[in-house]
Amino acid sequence: MTKAIRISENGGPDVMEYTDVELPIPGPGEARIRQMACGLNYIDVYYRTGQYAQSLPAGLGMEGAGVVEAVGPDVTHIHVGERVAYAGGPPGAYAAARVLPANVLVKLPASIEFDTAAAMMLQGLTVQYLFRRTFRLQGGETILFHAAAGGVGLIACQWARALGVTMIGTVSSDEKAELAKAHGCAHAINYRKENFVERVKEITEGKGVPVVYDSVGKETFFDSLDCLSPLGMMVSYGAASGPVPAFELKELVSRGSLFITRPSLFHYTAKRDELEIMAAELFGMVEGGKLKINIHQRYELSNAAQAHRDLEARLTTGSSILIP
């Protein structure tokens, strides 16, 4: 038996139950890990509310770090006793221990602590694919990145600076603006005080940006399109404010033949060799001192409901983790 968070219905934070669960013996292609820390991400809210569907009852959480306790048949890339980390499905990371597909696990360098790994895997790999694959930044670009003071955002600030990219970030307070700028964001716009479309046009001298990275969704989508230069790309990778409303393709034409994509980390990491390459680059950025993972909130696993309340209320900055 182990302690874990489970939901038997979709709804608010109170549907999460801290309970005992039975762990099966790892089957073919599976591994059991003892988790030292679990990551907290907005995708967990989508699964809890039912915006992302899964069979119930179910677990929550998509990332963690710990030690391998057992492996199933045919698992050869990891071994008992090794330190590992992961960001991938199925949900169930909110647990002291769990059995999961071994193909999502990567070996964790000794120089990176478990807390750091749990806080960075999903968010760090997200920035990696956004910046290096979805729209590959070469250096010298000016970009717009929403939620610049969040967990993904603060990693993006630092990664952009390391690449020589000028990042314009949106935030919800002056305090978050200062936090984003301290991590490498060149221009932080408090959208509660300023119109971010006007500020982007001002900063870019009317040209707009070649790419917008938007995890907010409904509240920012059309204004984000207005920030793009002709032939620019809208990268809509989340919907914290709600799903993007339906729109006509002519919206893209009228703004200059824009491109749009709705990517998901788990498509980019589906192939084992690509996951290894992505993780290696992320680990290298951390070990080289170019990325500092900021864990600003720590919660006991049993207090996961409060963690979700804080996350949805936009009270968190940087990364958050749950401690089993």
Automatic annotation (TrEMBL):
Name of this protein: Quinone oxidoreductase
Pfam families: ADH_N, ADH_zinc_N
NCBIfam families referenced in this protein's UniProt entry, alphabetically: PRK10754.1 (NF008024)
Family matches, as SUPFAM superfamilies: GroES-like (SSF50129), NAD(P)-binding Rossmann-fold domains (SSF51735)
Designated gene of the protein: qor-1
One GO cellular component term: cytosol
GO MF terms held by the record: mRNA 3'-UTR AU-rich region binding; NADPH binding; quinone reductase (NADPH) activity; zinc ion binding
Domain Enoyl reductase (ER): 11-322
Keyword terms of this UniProt record: NADP, Oxidoreductase
CDD domains: QOR2 (cd05286)
